[in-house]
User: What shape does this take?
Amino acid sequence: QVQLVESGGGSVQPGGSLRLSCAASGVSLDYYTIAWFRQAPGKEREGVSCIHTRDGMTYYVDSVKGRFTFSRDSAKNTMYLQMNGLKPEDTAVYYCAAGSLYDGSWDPNDYDYWGQGTQVTVSS
Assistant: This one.
């Protein structure tokens, strides 16, 4: 049984930092395209960052470039999202995802496995 278990969300003031973790079981993240998505109230789920199976490169949406860092620890089968310089518009439920797609994708429908989601709130 495949499980992605997230942790690390919380509430911070603007400019603060959080690190999200997503531990996988039943699947090796090394063989999947992996990604972080987020969904704010009343909005569609949007991709934040992904690591392609094809080239191992990491991609970010423009709104988080230079502030967020996506990494993976193969030994722990865990992915991380380090978020610095947080802004109120980053407030959302964040989800990790893994998919058997060769290239990356910002379409949630392309991913096979999802974490349960963790709330990130940025407010003064």
About this structure: The chain is about 0% helix and 50% strand.
